[in-house]
Amino acid sequence: MNARVMNVKVAGTAGSDSRPAAPVDPAPPHIAARGVAVDFRIEERRQRVLNDINLIVPKGSFVSLIGPSGCGKSTLLKVMAGLIAPSEGDMRVAGLSPQEAVKARLIGLVFQEATLLPWKNALENAAFLLMTADETIKRREAFERAAAMLRLVGLDDADKKMPSQLSGGMRQRVAIARALALNPEVLLMDEPFGALDAITREEMSECLLDIWERTGKTVVLVTHSIDEAVFLSREVHVMGTGPARIIETLPISLPHPRTEDSYADPAFAAAENRLRGLLIESHRRRRP
Amino acid sequence: MTDAPMSWAEQPSTARFRKGVSDAAPALGLSAAVIVFWELVIRLFGVPSFVLPAPTAVVASLAANWRALAVAAEATAIEVLFGFVLSGIVGIAVAIVIVRFERFGRAVYPLIVLFQNVPKVALAPIFILWFGYDLAPKILLIVVIAFFPVAIDMLAGLQSVDPSFVSLMRSVGASRGKIMLRVRIPHSLPHLMAGLKVAITFSVIGAIVGEFAGANQGLGYVIQFASTQLDTPLIFAALIVVSVLGLAFYYVVEFAERWLVPWAPKFDPVQAAG
Lengths: 288, 274
Ligand SMILES: Nc1ncnc2c1ncn2[C@@H]1O[C@H](COP(=O)(O)OP(=O)(O)OP(=O)(O)O)[C@@H](O)[C@H]1O
Ligand SMILES: [Mg+2]
Prior knowledge:
The complex is a heterodimer.
Chain A: H1 2-16, E1 29-42, E2 45-58, E3 62-66, H2 73-80, E4 88-93, H3 98-103, E5 107-110, H4 122-133, H5 139-152, H6 168-181, E6 186-190, H7 198-215, E7 218-222, H8 226-232, E8 235-240, E9 245-251, H9 266-284
Parallel strand pairs in A: 3-7, 3-8, 5-6, 6-7
Antiparallel strand pairs in A: 1-2, 1-4, 8-9
Helix pairs in contact in A: 4-5, 4-6, 5-6, 8-9
Chain B: H1 7-10, H2 13-45, H3 55-64, H4 66-100, H5 102-116, H6 124-131, H7 135-159, H8 163-171, H9 176-213, H10 219-228, H11 232-260, H12 269-273
Helix pairs in contact in B: 3-11, 4-5, 4-7, 4-9, 4-10, 4-11, 6-7, 7-9, 9-10, 9-11, 10-11
Bound molecules: adenosine-5'-triphosphate and magnesium ion (MG).
């Protein structure tokens, strides 16, 4: 109920500062933050890390969070995942509190490091969270689903490989498969390709885009790469520091489906320039 | 397990054996040189046997008393075995309780460290007083000596889990107990094995000290008895048996490590130093 009211409000703001009907997202809000603030206590001192975050992610959309290092992107993602409780405001995922969303298994997480269990092979790792989340699932069924997800992320014959035998990109694919095996409605990714080389990164971007188009999941991606944000997202939220808030929401009008050719689209360069400008501004404001 | 990333296991056994021999050769050579030098010094200067026996005298004593030494070794081995296993259990339990029940852990941890500073050897007579001359006081002494490295290493292992992993588990609603069981404990196994390797050597020391304090069997008893008889060659013979026993136990633990935690990083002392 609240989320719906807010949708109107925020969608209105986002629409008004760019062209009116660009990101027509008739989908209902899937993730909705209203006035979310987070304080961390550091040595008896309270420090405000996030302040008054208002954000709507429509169902099935792909949005990115971008902003200077330390501005609170990871913290915001953790609030969405129910790992940090907001000090103020309200976060809703599919109309539920993040904790309830966790219980309903709506959330899949991917971090910068693949964090695979070194004593399990790729398939076991991909099935591991699913088997933790659902105690009743049959081992065979969990493995079948994990194997299907490994194929989806392009790891066809790495099932039996141990993490130490996989490259960084392959490990990250396993981590994505592990999140997808949960069949979550929402995929939250924190710099998932941050540790990979440029070419692997682009490959992974295309792989992720392909998965998103096929599965229609709601994706929130934290990234430092302007290219990545533009190429993948429908909307990019630019965050600023001191304490963090969203300084601008930029709709990306690059047509779908996006392919390698999208990089050459004039709309790509335009969005990229605009985003670079916003980021520079956000960095400047960081000083005082 | 066929695909386990074990460089150790992937080598063919003959190559492994050859590498083992070439690794051991310098140490064996040095030992041989020391023994020959020792024998020469004793013969040249006519050192009396009860002060320092020649290696040949020690070997002679070993041959003459091997049956008694074997019986004593068995008694000591039983103490070490029980004491070590119990140390492992206590050490693991202490670490898990400290991590799982944070508040309690914060109260208990300093006490354990404090207790670690009590000279444990001095407790041996008290344990003898309380529990008599049987197995119990020796096992207890071993446990108070050897649980500490297990607890400390296990604790380090439990706490060194990548926080991202804990986040992942929490994001699917896993309880703290489940995170402990599925992630923290398996993750800490390589650390645990390091602690157990220290604990097994401490266990042998604990058994010998326990036997010194009061016993009627075991290698520590043999050493003490031999010293009252000024039978120094027998003392040395018993020491050799103690060392072999300790070495055997140590390698059992190391073998268990390779088998239990094949993913653990291998440690090569020489390469690590160089
Ligand atoms: N658990 C914590 N306790 C105290 N302060 C924290 C904690 N986690 C994060 N912070 C602080 O909150 C701020 C935001 O951190 P966060 O990790 O969300 O930034 P970020 O935008 O993800 O940065 P980066 O781009 O470098 O990953 C930082 O100043 C950080 O020092
Ligand atoms: Mg971050």
